[in-house]
Amino acid sequence: MLSKTFGYLNCIFLIVIISASVSVNAVERLWDYSGVEVCKFTSDQFRPTAAASDSGGVVITWQDRRSGDRIYAQKLDRYGNPVWLTNGVRLGLTGTGPPEERPTICSDGSGGAIVVWDEDGTKIIAQHISSDGILLWGTGIVICDTSGSQQKPRIIGDNLGGAIIIWKDSRDGGWDIYTQRVASDGTILWDSQGVLIRHASENAWQIGLISDGLDGAIIYWIDWRSGNFDVYAQHINGGGIVEWTINGAPICTATGDQMRVYATSDGFGGAIITWEDARGGNHDVYAQRIDNSGSVLWTYNGITLSSGTRDQNPFGIISDGCNGAIIAIEDERSGDWDIYAQRVSADGLILWPTNGVAVCSLSGSEQWRPQIASNNRGGAILTWWDYRNGSHSDIYVQEIDSSGAASWTENGISVTTSADNQYFYYDTDYGRYYSTTNIVLDGDSGAIVVWQDHRSDYYDWDTYAQRIGNPPIIHGVTTDDDWPGEKTVYVNGDIFIPEGDSVIIPSNTRVFFDTICVWDTLSGTKGIEDKCDIIVFGKLEAENSSFKPNSSSPEKGMWGWIRLDPPSHISTSRIYNCDIYYSTGGIHCTNQCADEIRYSYIYYTTGNALTCVDCPESVTIANNSIFWSDSSGIKCVDSSPTLSGNSSSYNDVSGIVCLSSSSPVITGNSIRYNDCDGIYSGASCSPEITNNYIYGNDLCGVHCSDGFSSLIGSNEIHDNNIGILVEGDSHPIIAGSFAQVNDIYDNTEFGLKNASGNDLDATYNYWGATSEPTIEANIFDEEDSVGAGAVNFLGWTNEPHTILYPKPTLISPEDDDTVSLPFNLFWSKSTGTNGTYTLQMALNSAFTDGLIERAGIPDTFYLVTAADSLSLTTYYWRVMSVSDTLDVNSWYQLPWCFHLGPSVGVADNPKTPGEIALLQNVPNPFNSSTSITVLLPEPAVMDVEIFDISGRYVASIASGQTPAGEHTYIWDGRNELGRESPDGIYLIKLRVDGEVEMVRKAVLAK
What we know:
Blueprint: E1 12-14, E2 18-22, E3 28-29, E4 36-39, E5 45-52, E6 58-64, E7 70-76, E8 89-90, E9 100-107, E10 113-119, E11 124-129, E12 141-144, E13 150-157, E14 163-169, E15 176-182, E16 195-198, E17 204-211, E18 217-223, E19 230-236, E20 249-252, E21 258-265, E22 271-277, E23 284-290, E24 303-306, E25 312-319, E26 325-331, E27 338-344, E28 357-360, E29 367-374, E30 380-386, E31 394-400, E32 413-416, E33 422-423, E34 426-429, E35 432-435, E36 439-441, E37 447-453, E38 462-469, E39 472-476, E40 487-491, E41 495-497, E42 502-505, E43 509-513, E44 515-520, E45 526-531, E46 534-536, E47 539-543, E48 546-549, E49 559-564, E50 573-576, E51 579-581, E52 583-590, E53 594-598, E54 601-603, E55 610-613, E56 620-622, E57 625-627, E58 634-637, E59 642-644, E60 647-649, E61 656-659, E62 665-667, E63 670-672, E64 679-681, E65 688-690, E66 693-695, E67 700-704, E68 711-713, E69 716-718, E70 722-727, E71 733-734, E72 743-745, E73 750-755, E74 765-767, E75 791-792, E76 810-812, E77 817-820, E78 823-827, E79 836-842, E80 852-857, ...
Parallel strand pairs: 40-43, 41-46, 42-47, 43-48, 46-49, 47-50, 48-51, 49-52, 50-53, 51-54, 52-55, 53-56, 54-57, 55-58, 56-59, 57-60, 58-61, 59-62, 60-63, 61-64, 62-65, 63-66, 64-67, 65-68, 66-69, 67-70, 68-71, 69-72, 70-73, 72-74, 77-83
Antiparallel strand pairs: 1-44, 2-39, 3-38, 4-38, 5-6, 6-7, 7-8, 9-10, 10-11, 11-12, 13-14, 14-15, 15-16, 17-18, 18-19, 19-20, 21-22, 22-23, 23-24, 25-26, 26-27, 27-28, 29-30, 30-31, 31-32, 33-37, 34-35, 36-37, 37-38, 44-45, 74-75, 76-78, 78-81, 79-80, 79-82, 82-83, 84-85, 85-88, 86-87, 86-89, ...
């Protein structure tokens, strides 16, 4: 229920009644549309993981590299506001120290959280942070710091405010599993260095744990004791006593490998466990239920949940609330990876269709790495990586009900589709990914999702979050028989939407405005107050609605305006196909206020019809009709929205006004018959003005006041007093190519008047007058004084002249790199040319000594070989684009250099005894496969992974415990799905004991 206090006694009430209800399918992003910045500090913030907090909030922890690898945390309230210090609270030691890595988190049940991490793989550390952001365990307590390595901890709450922690431990040589319980005050409750859970032959991998429903835990893992990977589990009670078979109860010991294991409680002290199973050749999904004694309850070695064509992999499991489970599945049956789910009952019956229901099966793109959370209604909310928008990953989400039916938009809705990649972080353990927790329930009908994000810097991860849920809908309860089938809201006073709440005005609603009318029930008198506004500090969504005064003789200014003024974390408003008449200010937008304002009619305003203040590029104002304003149609102040397809006409001042450093994109608009300018750009503003129809304005079609430096292109500008007026220190680009020609004609005084004192580039414009060209002081002092149909080069003659296209950018090898034959030179495509490239290499940067030129190169790379006869010295290089039909002079102006060294093989690479080394792959470039060699002076946990030049993961070459010595691996140029990778530059990353030791570049050129 929404309300506002008007300062009257309790006996005074409004005559309008407003109620709220929820529409299940009206799900949307409830915070900032592109996500809330949890931490956007310098360097990487990555490996985020989350735990639900009090009152619908969330606590998030992550690994942070602002001052080395350190662990930080932040709490967001239900509106996405940060509760603790900006950019997070540091949880561990102050100052420098060993790297802190791989945090995991659980709720403390009181609005805070307990976080555990490993310190450089040598000890396990934990911290308790209160609901107020206070560190309760100093700089952290040691959970285990014995000999060997301790790493990859996992954590759950113990239901008493403390936690149970497990980790992998090599104190006895191989990888075993230990556990510890810690009370809420930091007291260690079990053996000081942990309780041994498993110590069998071979190693344990992919460990996890769930609560036993009391104060103990069920722990699960895979190990190699039988010669292939099998699934085991163990129970430890609240007193630290291991209760099942020594070294674990077998869950599945079938032939082939069983890997990628997950579990959830069965509600009776046991568990339902699911895993990836290769007994049939490809990967299928199996499950088993065990009781509280460790006995299996379903078919020996498990039941099949999904066994379709190709591979199916489980990626999470939750309880269905009825002692069964729902499993998230990554499925390749269609040839692309898709997201599926399956439900199994407590008795082991498959409840949904064979091989599961599709959560997202969008063809032609990959959907990977799902995570799953219960919706507390027998269904689930799933989130995943999604590549439907191209080569970068976005985050999508979907809800399925207890029958497996999708509740939201088919194939899911986007949590974020910002530029570059958005990922969940997945650690690897023996070639399989296992996730931290990136989705938690919001305590209402939705979920909160956290992720790591590349949008601000391609090589810098930040941490973001978003809340997805159902906003309330506001209905007016009064009706009007004159409008059958339409709802009516009689507003007698402000509609005041509190911060964080949303308002949706239903379709075909007419909203009338009058004065505030209240009654004092004691005296029966009626009070009259000021005219009203709609003030939206939350979210307004209106479609097919009419906003006008409740008057038979309406006049301008009879009500105020619709003011959209949300904080940055509130989801944006939407006004679609609405009528807004007789107001003082139409719509007033502030900050990230509106997802879109489209197809609306804004008439008869006493002030500006639509005002934007501090609005970013993501605000879209399109296809609106704006007429008869006493001021300007659209006014932008410190704003850069997209203005497209609007008609802004017959206004008393200007069609569009830009002030105070505004730089909107103004495209495809019709701007006519305004009393001053069509478009006015004030000081320090640089709107991009393209493809507009600008005519009949009393002063100027486009008026560039001062500091204008953007493009004016592809516009039709006619029948104004002055077509384009340039003043002050402005230097616009008035059409920058033949593709951006302006059509400027029949303007009364000037087609173009340059009063700026700067030379203008007005190349490539068509002028419609018949007089001969006259160019004097860069001012067109006669009506459109350039020859009819001519291409004008202002400041030049009308003879043909060189056309400068964007120059190619050098890519690789990077400036000052050392290379050996053979190697590739790479550069970017020169937009606008469909011809070839010329490459020059020389011994000096002036390209006068030892020049080697290669012309007619059709591609954006050149393979340098011994045939090019280069010496072992430093060379400078540059690239020029050459058009098929035009004279183009387009050298890259800042040449790079490379140092050519002797060709080397593996034996020639540096090999320093006692040091870790990643040798250069051989051959390089390669067209089918390449050899990668790693030197390890001592045994270590090692990962060798391939990434593309954008930082996107491609494949894992090696992973796991590796003995000392020289190790050589082959990469066949394929990604982890077995598909061929495209030509390009790839990064080979060596990570030893969790740290990136070395990176090499490999070039795939088929």
